Fold:
Amino acid sequence: MSEKRLNRIMLKLSGEALCGEVGGFGIKPDTLREICLEIAEVHKTGTQIALVIGGGNIFRGLKGNAQGMERASADYMGMLATVINGIALQDGLEKAGVETRLLSALSIRQVAEPYIRRKAVRHLEKGRVVIFVAGTGNPYFSTDTAAALRAMEIQAEVLLKATKVAGIYDKDPEKHDSAKMYHRLSYDQFLIDRVGVMDQTAVTLCRDNQLPIRVFALTQRGNIERVVRGEDVGTLVSEEGEKG
Structure:
């Protein structure tokens, strides 16, 4: 990733990124604006950008299930939450001067195009930012898995997972001052260590199709551009990654 600028990326954002705090609710306009401005700056350099957005700031399917709701129903509610976030992102990006397309895995034709792989690729080729919402369209799958799936379908060069911390650590850095960050990590070690930063199904999918994952902090302004430029930001998860 250090030899050349990335041409096509998949950026995975959590729903909580839009409210500016872990466990927070709703969408904070200033936070949304800052994220959209940063994405717009990267887009202007010519990089093709696809986005998958979560819905945890509005409704989290697993939480609903834990509170007694039927799992499939809770997951569909979570998918609809991602549509709300996707509309917000689309509005913010277009206010920043970026042409976008919102593609949904569920049929909601009044607000989003139905997901068709070839159309998504064509939108990217025409310089539009593509926002994928409603996950995979199926319950029991996370938006991380949706991001991995869509990244491979559109032939993205890397899956960028934007988080609240600088990368992947050997222990929770917010609880342990001695936590050490990995700059490289193999898919297998990620799965063995059961790293909580990304769904294991998503990582397995990336491993089986050799799609690298870059985990980095969204909270540091300019990090998306640094990653796209090929800088060694955060943690790279790949076939040949090593701890350390």
Summary: The radius of gyration is 17 Å. Residues 29 and 149 are 29 Å apart (CA to CA). Residues 8-238 form a domain with the Carbamate kinase fold (CATH 3.40.1160.10).
